[in-house]
């Protein structure tokens, strides 16, 4: 069985799989503690065990006897482990009564009862309500919901528990699930009007109005605008009204909810009524009511008044920067020329406006308005050219367009400003730039970046940098010796298959690693340990900016420049006193580490300029070879690899597909999840993904690789955030988004898709990745059956092996678990030879990919 174990401070949740039927709750706690230690956490021994409903359990109890599969178990320590809340008393069996007339009138509520049921002692429910409140305040809605459900088990229909649970589910985006609880709270409030002293009953007209408001909110979110309007009008009738003077804030809130319901109902008459209510609320609040301002902006957008909408959204943004509706209104407004012009006029363009420009750019980016975000970021960087943080915002915004050449230009411009500041030239942010650049190789970086030709914006995996940047011989990378093999065509040998190449590569890699380790040991003996540096925030931003340049260079084919920049940045990276993955630039540092390892230990073939000859036959499959092995690359048909960072290990390498040598061209979409690609998704990775897909020629073949980030962080975050009640439901939602993406790629863009499994590279998430892959495989098969040009690449099993250490643990102690949803060693783990950095696959898996591609092509794919 599998249970969710909660404990620790800060809170930690671990999915524990108990394979042994005799496993106890103490075994589950031990597995939880082991998983916490693997994450660098020490958790105290629990003083008490508690089920979701509040019942106390004994440590020696068999888990199978006291819990069901996928139940929650709370490990309590300290004050939380005090005496449990008292259980509700059992109602006595009433004595027989004389026969009564049929259909007697219902008895009124009596004190101490609710809905005719015996009330639990106040302490029992109050304890669970308090626990729910603390969990919700601590950002643990799933735990809060479990406590509220426990309260409802003890006191069915309890109004406060019902209302709180409805609010939690509504906030989690589950209005249909929230509705029954909102209805229960509304019924309870209506019943309480006749018996205000009833136990737990809300009292007063305002409380009844709040219950109707909550019901209306749920109905409106569920798409029932008419029902919501009725509920809001009933709430207005219940709400206390001011006899003299302006309406209260609560009354204005209810009026604006009526306006929203009218607007959602559609039709000219409803739209006019919504507009009148909105203008009245603005007049009554001296144009300060936030919801009235937001609806005004949305109505202005519908009427083509983007400039007014932009100005109002800008006014709201500082008040509610995390409000999705505010960001959406802003993004929709400034995507238009009039809206963007109005926003720029309001913000200004001087140095004092740089922070405001950056703030609005980030909000626009999150709303999916990536072109406007790039323009705003460019204005911010121009207003303060010495600020590395602003240059970094601009570089990332240009990546989204996609415009890798523009991203590199943003880095180069900052390098020039920083070098000018170092030489004493005046400029905005010059002092900060000079300090940030003190430990960085800016001259080397600027020389590398300025040597590249312009790269056209929007071209998918352009070869310009690859072809113009390649020398006529293999390019050595810092810490890496060029491969010793020769092109088989020049020696008269038969072309290598990927399997043969893999064996040679492994031998050469072992030799190379031994040589590099020896050189490193020799250097350490000769040199004192490097001095550690505590980088300032500005220095970290500058480092992240150069890390980003290395990533963009590699993904765009400027391999020698990327290798040289990685070599130049290795010393300042290693000098950081803090582990960079624990800083604000952890994402940029992770990408840099991946690219640096690929270039140093698994460099792609050194390809050189176009027209150097006919396309070579199969060779250099797993990333080795000489310049001649890549001759004629411009004439090779591309096989695009579209997706997250897992497209990098195979980038700029070759496979043989249907007997034809194909160049794997990366189309990197930073941070994209399968969930982002759902219908209606507008988060910026989705915008970059679809813009990239749109730039490909119809009929192009694409390897789609997404899903690993969903498994690593998205699934359990959604589960803990109460988006779903089970892991299976969360996986199914991601798989549905994936299926939608497959259909759009094929039908909308005319692409032919090879579906790559999500790589199970991270040990802690391997089991979750495998579970998600099973769902993705099923969706890909359904798409193929429906006639779409989709084939699943079935090679995941070749990547995996059983984990011997974890298997031993399972035999000894009833099973273990890993955080983030894996089940310890019960599930398979990535084979060591395919591991690059703990998160990505090594290019050594390329033969498996090539074999799966050919198998998929032979399965009727070419006839579609």
From TrEMBL:
> Where are the compositionally biased (Gly residues) regions?
812-827
Keywords from UniProt, A to Z, are: TPR repeat
Q: Which SUPFAM superfamilies match?
A: TPR-like
Sequence ranges of the TPR repeats: 209-242
Report the leader peptide range. none
Record-linked InterPro entries: TPR-like_helical_dom_sf (IPR011990), TPR_rpt (IPR019734)
Q: Where is the composition biased (Low complexity)?
A: 98-111, 487-497
Q: Where is the composition biased (Pro residues)?
A: 86-97
Region spans: Disordered: 86-118, 478-532, 806-829
Q: Name the chain's protein.
A: Uncharacterized protein
């Amino acid at each position: 069985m599998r249970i969710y174990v909660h404990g620790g401070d800060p809170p930690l949740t671990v999915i524990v799989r108990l394979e042994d039927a005799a496993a106890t709750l103490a075994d589950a706690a031990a597995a939880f503690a082991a998983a916490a230690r693997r994450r660098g956490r020490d958790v105290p021994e629990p003083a008490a065990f508690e089920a979701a409903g509040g019942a106390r359990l004994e440590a020696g109890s068999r888990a199978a006897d006291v819990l069901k599969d996928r139940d929650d178990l709370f490990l309590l320590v300290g004050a939380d482990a005090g005496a449990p809340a008292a259980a509700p008393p059992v109602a006595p069996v009433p004595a027989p009564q004389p026969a009564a007339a049929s259909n007697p009138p219902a008895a009124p509520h009596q004190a101490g009862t609710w809905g005719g049921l015996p009330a639990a002692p106040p302490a029992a429910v109050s304890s669970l309500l308090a626990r729910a409140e603390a969990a919700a305040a601590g950002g643990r809605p799933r735990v809060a919901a479990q406590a509220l459900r426990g309260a409802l088990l003890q006191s069915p229909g309890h109004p406060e528990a019902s209302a709180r649970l409805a609010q939690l589910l509504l906030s989690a985006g589950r209005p249909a699930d929230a509705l029954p609880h909102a209805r229960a709270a509304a019924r309870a409030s209506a019943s309480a009007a006749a018996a205000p002293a009833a136990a737990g009953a809300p009292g007063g007209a305002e409380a009844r109005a709040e219950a109707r408001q909550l019901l209306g909110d749920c109905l409106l979110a569920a798409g029932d605008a008419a029902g919501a309007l009725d509920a809001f009008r009933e709430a207005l009738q219940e709400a206390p009204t001011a006899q003299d003077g302006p309406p209260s804030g609560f009354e204005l809130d209810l009026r604006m909810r009526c306006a929203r319901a009218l607007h959602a109902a559609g039709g000219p008459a409803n739209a006019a009524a919504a507009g009148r209510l909105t203008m009245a609320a603005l007049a009554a609040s001296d144009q300060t009511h936030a919801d009235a301002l937001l609806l005004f902006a949305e109505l202005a957008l519908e009427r083509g008044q983007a400039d007014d909408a932009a100005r109002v959204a800008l006014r709201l943004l500082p008040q509610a920067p995390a409000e999705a509706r505010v960001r959406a209104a802003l993004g929709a407004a400034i995507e238009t020329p009039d809206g963007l012009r109005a926003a720029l006029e309001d913000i200004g363009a001087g140095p004092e406006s740089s922070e405001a420009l950056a703030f609005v750019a980030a909000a626009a980016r999150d709303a999916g308005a990536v072109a406007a975000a790039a323009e705003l970021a460019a204005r911010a960087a121009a207003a303060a050219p010495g600020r590395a943080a602003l240059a970094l915002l601009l570089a990332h915004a240009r990546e989204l367009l996609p415009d890798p050449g523009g991203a590199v230009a943003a880095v180069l411009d900052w390098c020039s400003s920083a070098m000018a500041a170092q030489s004493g030239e005046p400029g905005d942010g010059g002092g900060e730039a000079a300090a940030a650049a003190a430990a960085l190789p800016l001259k080397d970086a600027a020389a590398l970046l300025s040597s590249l030709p312009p790269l056209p914006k929007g071209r998918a995996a352009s070869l310009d940098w690859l072809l113009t940047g390649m020398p006529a011989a293999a390019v050595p990378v810092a810490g890496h010796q060029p491969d010793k093999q020769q092109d088989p065509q020049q020696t008269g040998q038969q072309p290598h298959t990927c399997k043969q190449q893999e064996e040679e590569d492994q031998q050469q890699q072992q030799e190379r690693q031994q040589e590099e380790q020896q050189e490193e040991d020799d250097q350490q003996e000769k040199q004192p340990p490097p001095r550690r540096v505590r980088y300032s925030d500005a220095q970290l931003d500058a480092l992240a900016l150069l890390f980003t340049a290395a990533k963009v260079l590699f993904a765009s084919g400027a391999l020698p420049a990327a290798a040289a920049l990685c070599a130049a940045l290795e010393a300042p990276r290693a000098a950081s006193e803090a582990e960079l993955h624990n800083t604000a630039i952890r994402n940029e540092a992770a990408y840099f580490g991946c690219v640096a390892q690929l270039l140093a230990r698994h460099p792609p073939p050194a390809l050189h300029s176009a027209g150097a000859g006919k396309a070579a036959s199969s060779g250099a499959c797993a990333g080795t070879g000489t310049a001649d092995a890549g001759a004629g690359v411009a004439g090779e048909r591309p096989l695009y690899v579209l997706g997250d960072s897992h497209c990098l290990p195979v980038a700029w390498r070759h496979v043989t597909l249907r007997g034809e040598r194909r160049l794997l061209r990366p189309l990197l979409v930073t941070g994209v999840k399968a969930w982002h690609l759902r219908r209606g998704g507008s988060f910026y990775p989705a915008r970059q993904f679809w813009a990239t897909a749109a730039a490909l020629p119809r009929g192009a073949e694409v390897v789609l690789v997404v899903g690993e980030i969903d498994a690593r962080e998205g699934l359990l975050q959604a589960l803990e955030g109460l988006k779903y009640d089970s892991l299976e439901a969360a996986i199914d939602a991601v798989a549905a988004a994936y299926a939608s993406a497959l259909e759009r790629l094929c039908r909308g863009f005319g692409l032919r898709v090879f579906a790559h499994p999500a790589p199970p590279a991270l040990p802690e998430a391997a089991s979750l990745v495998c579970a998600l892959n099973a769902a993705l495989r099923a969706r890909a098969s359904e798409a193929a059956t429906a006639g779409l040009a989709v084939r699943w690449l079935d090679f995941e099993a070749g990547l995996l092996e059983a984990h011997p250490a974890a298997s031993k643990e399972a035999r000894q102690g009833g099973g273990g678990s890993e955080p983030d949803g894996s089940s310890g060693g019960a599930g398979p783990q990535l084979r060591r030879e395919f591991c690059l950095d703990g998160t990505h696959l090594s290019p050594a898996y390329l033969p498996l990919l090539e074999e799966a591609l050919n198998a998929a092509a032979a399965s009727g794919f070419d006839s579609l």
